[in-house]
Design brief:
Distance between the termini of chain A: 41 Å
Number of strands of chain A: 8
Shape of chain B: globular
Number of domains of chain B: 2
Radius of gyration of chain A: 20 Å
Order of helices and strands of chain A: HHHHHHHHEEEEEEEE
CATH class of the largest domain in chain B: Mainly Alpha
Helix content of chain A: 25-40%
Radius of gyration of chain B: 19 Å
Structural class of chain A: alpha+beta
Number of strands of chain B: 0
Largest sheet of chain B: none
Oligomer: heterodimer
Structural class of chain B: mainly alpha
CATH architecture of the largest domain in chain B: Orthogonal Bundle
Strand order of the largest sheet of chain A: 1-2-3-6
Chain lengths: 253, 197
């Protein structure tokens, strides 16, 4: 296990399971964590030696984008009551593992504009397809996208990727995903909203032949901080029963 | 822009340029001016490193943008106990660069990357600043003190964005050996560079 310290510092572990195991090991081994810190600083020096001045326009683009990106609050220890309810949620849910890994997985937020464009693209394709019965959903999707307080988050996760767009004023979120492999009839993808109180189903997802799903609109659950996708028996489950394929930080207002 | 009614944060020096660690604390409070200073300090290293890994200039600009926006977004999560601010920023950017090359990776593409990568000249000699040139000189000397296998394992991983499995396949060396060489190579590099532990 310890031998992985170098590969870890170089970001050369490409297996998520192995990465988690090593990080778990690190959290219980102060000496290893200390070594990894030194090796990560060393790897950084490799990067510094490669410095190249970026084009000036990049600075302007970045300064413009940060004006539209909400900052994360600091990590704080949960209050006793939340810790209590979270640990009971963890006991009954395989999502427990991920809640601890959220900071790493949270590293995926793209500009709202990009996500909205993706969603609108999906909506447009569907409209062209003339699927009348889906127009009601389209209107709901459009209402969320047009809300003044719309926020989005996107995560690639291996082959699968997802985007969630949320409007707190509308009390709704829209979720789309791609790269979802087809499942046997006995199985379905299920979307969850997860908070300190545990997970609540946000509906079943039916990917088309190319792994895309149509936008799914659901009401936001108070306190939900994360959305996730799991594979469940056909018809869905009360609570997630498998490890999630996809996890996204739900943007807060 | 800092609100008018708030005094400048404590300890902000007037003459000496602020450290990246301090700037990040101000960025965490939404200080755009501090972020501009962060940008000035990290944009060159981030862009250059990303360019080494990704190679394509337009994509490297995108990855640099993603990484720096992430620095803005997550500044409050930076924990000085866990390493220097520069290491934190470069880690974010390096992970992003690797995500980019791994997701774009097809067999042919990977071979192109191997072909373009010269482990004996691990960085392009285009450094514009004196500091970067000094850093390169020191690093070149220290990399010269590694065994070939240590140097190749470390540089294929860091500059090539290879996983240790890929390095093992590429160099036809057992997995366990590659893991060990990455670790002892970095340790030797750390000691040669005098990196604080």
């Amino acid at each position: 296990m310890h031998a992985l310290a170098g590969a870890y510092a170089l970001h050369a572990i490409d297996d998520d399971g192995e990465l988690r195991l090593f990080e778990e090991h690190l959290s219980g081994c102060a000496e290893c964590a200390q070594e990894v810190r030194g090796l990560a600083e060393t790897a950084t020096r490799l990067g510094l030696a490669a410095a190249v001045e970026p084009p000036p326009a990049l600075r302007d683009r970045i300064m413009a984008e940060i004006g539209q990106v909400r900052q994360l609050p600091p990590l704080v220890a949960p209050s006793p009551s939340i810790r209590e309810s979270r640990s009971s949620a963890e006991r009954r849910s395989p999502l427990a593992g991920w809640l601890r890994w959220r900071p790493r997985l949270a590293a995926a937020l793209t500009a709202t504009a990009v996500a909205a464009a993706v969603l609108l693209g999906v909506v447009a394709v569907r409209t062209q397809a003339g699927l009348d019965e889906l127009r009601a959903t389209d209107r709901e999707v459009t209402a969320v996208l047009a809300a003044p307080d719309v926020r989005s988050a996107t995560a690639p996760s291996g082959a699968a990727g997802g985007t969630v767009v949320v409007s707190r004023s509308q009390g709704k979120m829209v979720f789309v995903a791609s790269g979802l492999a087809s499942l046997p009839d006995s199985r379905t993808y299920q979307l969850w909203q997860i908070g300190p109180e545990g997970a609540r189903s946000a509906g079943l997802l039916r990917p088309d032949g190319t792994g895309h799903i149509s936008p799914v609109v659901s009401a936001t659950v108070d306190g939900a901080t994360t959305v996730g996708v799991t594979v469940e028996p056909a018809g869905g489950s009360e609570q997630p029963t498998t490890q999630p394929l996809l996890l996204l930080d739900l943007p807060q207002a | 822009m800092r609100p008018e009614d708030e005094a400048p944060p404590e300890g902000r020096p007037h003459a000496a340029p602020p450290e990246l660690e301090d700037l990040l604390r101000w960025v965490a409070r939404g200080d755009r001016d501090a972020f501009e200073q962060v940008y000035a300090l990290v944009a060159g290293p981030v862009f250059g490193m990303v360019l080494r890994v990704v190679r394509d200039r337009a994509q490297s600009e995108e990855v640099t943008q993603e990484a720096l926006v992430e620095v803005w977004r997550a500044a409050a999560r930076y924990d000085p106990e866990r390493g220097s601010a520069m290491a934190w920023v470069m880690t974010i950017a390096h992970r992003r660069a690797i995500d980019r090359v791994r997701s774009a990776q097809a067999g042919a593409d990977r071979e192109t990357r191997v072909a373009r990568m010269d482990v004996h000249r691990p960085f392009d000699e285009v450094a514009e600043s004196v500091a970067a040139r000094l850093e390169q000189e020191r690093l070149r000397r220290c990399l010269g003190g590694l065994t070939d296998l240590q140097r190749e394992s470390v540089t294929f991983a860091y500059y090539g964005g290879y996983s240790y499995r890929e390095v093992s396949e590429l160099l036809k060396v057992p997995l366990a050996t590659v893991k060990t060489r990455m670790r002892d190579g970095l340790i030797r590099l750390r000691d040669c560079l005098g990196v604080e532990r």
